[in-house]
UniProtKB/TrEMBL annotation:
Transketolase-like pyrimidine-binding domain boundaries: 594-787
EC code: 1.2.4.2
Protein name per its UniProtKB record: oxoglutarate dehydrogenase (succinyl-transferring)
UniProt cross-references to Gene3D superfamilies, sorted A to Z: 3.40.50.12470, 3.40.50.970, Multifunctional 2-oxoglutarate metabolism enzyme, C-terminal domain (3.40.50.11610), TPP helical domain (1.10.287.1150)
Main enzyme class: oxidoreductase
The protein's required cofactors: thiamine diphosphate
Entry-linked CDD domains: TPP_E1_OGDC_like
Organism name: Pokkaliibacter plantistimulans
Pfam families: 2-oxogl_dehyd_N (PF16078), E1_dh (PF00676), OxoGdeHyase_C (PF16870), Transket_pyr (PF02779)
Keyword field contains Oxidoreductase: yes
Length: 938
């Protein structure tokens, strides 16, 4: 009884309950106007208050019913039922529970009626030892929210079938939270999943369906055969999205970020986001509208503002490649960035909506990764509304038995206990209802929710595809099947909601608007509130060679260095960590040279001091995979964590350093989305080992390296990829530098290989202080993190800058130098030690710290200092078919030819290999020695 009272849908503020209309709503939600029902639906459902002093009869009767059920539950649980009627009462309650659990399996979800569903034994009377003879017997309803205490069994079954076995199939009994289940039961059962909507709302649904169908017909006739990945068969998506956005705005949402693949994208852009149809027609005509390579029209993003009853809402459609589900975590990252900017901790002001295809939702692993992120500290966004356009065929040649092993394409969502609403796309009012429940659930519980819009695809995979060759039965049925709009229009005509003339007029008005090139979204705000937009203007039009000042007053470095080492009183760190902190205090005072970890933390601290937020995520970033960072410390007494970078000064920008889940693809996509929405922040993803980024190659190829050229999307994301040959085998040696260099063109990204603490300090600061916004890919070291020669002074941090090329650091007579060795990364120290040990004054070693954009001018300046050079060598640790050699040698040769036309560049490295590195330490050492010797001596 106590639990029922705590989680009852009747709980809430007293004001709403004093209204007579709320009493009527409790008896029968369909008895009150739709507008009032929606308000009552939004009332709090689960507070711990118990209302005792409200004299209204409906509430009092409801509590009496709960009390009766409480008394009955005791004999049922103890199996002390004494009469046949009471035994049957127990069976009826089990029957009710069966409908809640398995009713969806008997629901009429397929508009085509192709799939014959197996009978569900649990829903049969005989399964529960009941019969037709019991149909007229009255039973207690138990916890059913049907507005009555008892009813004949035939009425109970009729209500259950209408709720769970018609055009809505609800799955929510897998949810473990009792409060959430009771909330959902109340919303579904109180109106039997089919609320009564007023005429105005139903006409609006018809208008939106007419818009969805009208655009597809218009494009089909004007651009016959052109690919558009039309929405035909799934037109109910448009009234669904319209209701979702309008209701979200009413609930207080200020921004909505949408991700979706091709299917129906053009329709959403025009009919939901308000893209001008004439602009879309220009794209069909093939006219160029942006610089760069551009992209096909069904990959393009868009943003606009619409007006809702709750105020202006900003809509953003994310750009997306053909890799379908990869946009989902990108959307989540963009949403989280917007929420952080607003201080929207619970996600009440920014809503993510991800629209999926059925086969992709079931088949793509990034879907699971994105769900797994949904409730974690670094990645949660207050719940996502997932919509599946379920065509029932993934690709034209796909069959159900080949596309998944689960009953539904949505089953992966159960892993996070998300409620799932399957709905027949040919019942637009049922679609509207589940949409309302879904957004209200997300608003109430801040968790993911899934709508499975079961529809069909009237044409092939694209408009040039003939589907009947491989799907003859389905497309024979589709050819005879009326459209969703035709079905719904006839329904409204039969019910005298509209006339046939009004229905035709709606169609004609929409087509006229398209002919005139007018916006077709009536709620579109033509002069939007620009405060809802992210301002990228300060970051436009800058060249990569733009200079920036990364110097900092040395006194500030002293101050921040001390603060980074400050611990709360009583905070006990592990012994080795304590030694690291003590050393950092000495480094901050100038008493010790700085190592990599402290220089990195000082880069973050100084950026925070200058007003830049920091976000660093990855699988082991708090400590650092190689135990160098220790930015997040752990109290050995109670396990609490402390990040000193969050406590530098009052009112400072946010500094988030979070270990991620064991994912690369979804996490990197999330950080990309975050960085494209927060230009002022330093956003970093660090791989545990550099080769781990292989699992996120789609993100790298389709977003990070090409997003600006395709879509004009700027991004300042930094990727830290540990790289270096330490004898750790094939998987943990190479970050696959060659892959990033192969993707370099048009100054799209930066690829750096820093070798000193000062270099990483200035490189990280440059990434934010310089107004240029380009992704930064860094080959970070492993052994250099504690290498006795890889050190820097405070003065180098205070007064230096990032050097794209580091010249020889040893005093030499440059006229005596005959051989110049160029390199990047850890191998420099091996070369330096070999050269010095063998006393080779005629060999100079320089480091190229930025491999792209390649600093030809800086390299040429260094080369000209050696007038008597006879040979120039590029030395790398990687096999010669990998690393920087193939992608960077032409840049090096260009600089050499300008200074020494007769010198040919020679490459030195490991032998060509299919594997990045050997797995035997002895072989590794032999190879390393040979590489170094060949570079120094030839």
């Amino acid at each position: 009884m106590e639990l029922m009272w705590r989680t009852s849908h009747l709980s809430g503020g007293n004001v709403a309950y004093v209204e007579q209309m709320y009493e009527d709503y409790l008896r029968d939600p369909n008895s009150v106007p739709d507008q009032w029902r929606q308000e009552f639906d939004r009332l709090p459902r689960a507070t711990e208050q118990v209302i005792q002093d409200i004299p209204h009869s409906a509430i009092r009767d409801h509590f009496l019913l709960l009390s009766k059920n409480k008394k009955r539950s005791i004999p049922v649980a103890t199996s002390s039922v004494s009469t046949e009627h009471e035994r049957k009462q127990v069976r009826v309650l089990k029957l009710i529970e069966a409908y809640r659990v398995r009713g969806h399996q008997a629901a009429v979800l397929d508009p085509l009626g192709l799939k014959q569903r197996e009978p569900v034994p649990d829903l049969d009377l005989r399964y529960h030892e009941l019969s037709e003879a019991d149909l007229d017997t009255t039973f207690q309803i138990g916890s059913l929210f049907f507005g009555k205490a008892e009813a004949p069994l035939k009425d109970i079954i009729a209500d259950l079938k209408q709720t769970y076995c018609t055009t809505v199939g609800a799955e929510y009994m897998h949810i473990v939270d009792t409060q959430e289940k009771l909330w959902l039961q109340q919303r579904l059962e109180s109106v039997r999943c089919h609320p009564v909507y007023d005429a105005a709302f139903r006409k609006h649904i018809l208008e939106r369906l007419s818009a969805a169908e009208g655009l597809e017909k218009y494009l089909g006739s004007r651009y016959a055969g052109a690919k558009r990945f039309g929405l035909e068969g799934g037109e109910a998506l448009i009234p669904m999205m319209d209701e979702l956005i309008q209701r979200a705005g009413k609930l207080g949402v200020k921004e909505v970020v949408i991700g979706m693949a091709h299917r129906g994208r053009l329709n959403c852009l025009v009919n939901i986001l308000g893209k001008n149809p004439s602009d879309l027609f220009h794209e069909f005509d093939g006219k160029r509208s942006v610089e760069g390579s551009g992209d096909v029209k069904y990959h393009q993003g868009f943003s606009s503002n619409v007006m809702t009853t709750g105020g202006e809402v900003h809509l953003a459609m994310a750009f997306n490649p053909s890799h379908l589900e990869i946009v989902s975590p990108v959307v989540e990252g963009s949403v989280r960035a917007r929420q952080d900017r607003r201080g929207d901790v619970d996600g009440e002001q920014v809503l993510p909506i991800n629209i999926h295809g059925d086969a992709a939702f079931a088949g793509q692993g990034v879907v699971m990764e994105t769900f797994q992120m949904s409730q974690t500290r670094a990645y949660k966004t207050g719940g996502t509304v997932h919509i599946i356009i379920n065509n029932q065929v993934g690709f034209t040649t796909s069959n159900r038995e080949d596309s998944r092993s689960t009953e539904y394409c949505t089953d992966v969502a159960k892993m996070v206990h998300a409620p799932i609403f399957h709905v027949n796309g040919d019942d637009p009012e049922a679609v509207a209802f589940v949409t309302q429940v879904a957004i209200d659930y997300r608003n109430e519980f801040h968790r993911d929710v899934v709508i499975d819009l079961v529809c069909y695809r009237r044409r092939g995979h694209n408009e040039a595809d003939e589907p009947s060759a491989t799907q003859p039965l389905m497309y024979e049925k589709i050819r005879k099947h009326p459209t969703t709009r035709e079905i719904y229009a006839q329904r409204l005509i039969n019910e005298s909601v509209v006339s046939a003339e009004e229905s035709k007029q709606i169609e004609d008005e929409y087509r006229d608007a398209l002919d005139n090139g007018q916006h077709v979204v009536k709620s579109l705000v033509l002069e939007p509130n620009t405060a809802l937009f992210v301002d990228w203007k300060p970051y436009l039009g800058h060249k990569w060679t733009a200079k920036c000042d990364t110097t900092v007053d040395i006194n500030l470095l002293h101050e921040l260095g001390e603060k980074v080492c400050d611990l709360p009183e009583g905070f006990v760190v592990q012994r080795q960590v304590g030694k690291i902190i003590e050393d950092r205090k000495l480094m901050s005072r100038g008493a010790m040279p700085l190592n990599w970890g402290h220089a990195e933390l000082l880069a973050y601290a100084t950026l925070i001091k200058q007003g830049h937020p920091i976000r660093l995520t990855g699988q082991d970033v708090g400590r650092g995979t190689f135990s160098h960072r220790h930015a997040v410390l752990h109290n050995q007494k109670d396990g609490t964590a402390f990040n000193s970078l969050q406590h530098l000064y009052e009112g400072q920008p946010e500094c988030v350093i979070r270990d991620s889940l064991l994912s690369e693809e979804a996490v990197l996509a999330f950080e990309y989305g975050y960085s494209t929405t927060t230009p002022n922040a330093l956003v970093i993803w660090e791989a545990q080992f550099g080769d781990f980024a292989n699992g996120a190659q789609v993100v790298i190829d389709q977003f990070i390296t090409s997003g600006e050229t395709k879509w004009g999307r700027l991004c300042g994301l930094t990727m830290l990829l540990p790289h270096g040959y330490e004898g750790q085998g094939p998987e943990h040696s190479s970050a696959r530098l060659e892959r990033y260099l192969q993707l370099c063109a048009e100054h799209n990204i930066q690829v750096c290989v820093p070798t000193t603490p000062a270099q990483v300090y200035h490189m990280l600061r440059r990434q934010v202080i310089r107004p240029l916004r380009k992704p930064l890919v860094v080959m970070t070291p492993k052994s250099l993190l504690r290498h006795k020669q890889a050190i820097s002074s405070l003065e180098e941090l205070a007064n230096g800058s990032f050097q794209t090329v580091i010249p020889e650091v040893v005093e030499q007579n440059k006229a005596e130098v005959k051989r110049l060795v160029m390199c990047s990364g850890k191998v420099y120290y091996d070369l330096l030690n070999k050269r010095d040990a063998d006393n080779c004054p005629d060999v100079a070693i320089i480091r190229i710290e930025q491999l792209y954009p390649f600093p030809e001018d800086d390299l040429e300046e260094v080369l000209r200092q050696y007038p008597n050079l006879q040979s120039v060598v590029w030395c790398q640790e990687e096999p010669m078919n990998q690393g920087a050699w193939y992608c960077s040698q032409h840049h090096m040769r260009n600089a050499i030819r300008k200074c020494f036309p007769n010198i040919e560049l020679v490459g030195v490295g490991r032998q060509h290999s299919a594997s990045p590195a050997v797995g035997y330490t002895s072989v590794h050492l032999e190879e390393q020695e040979k590489v170094v010797n060949d570079a120094i001596y030839g």
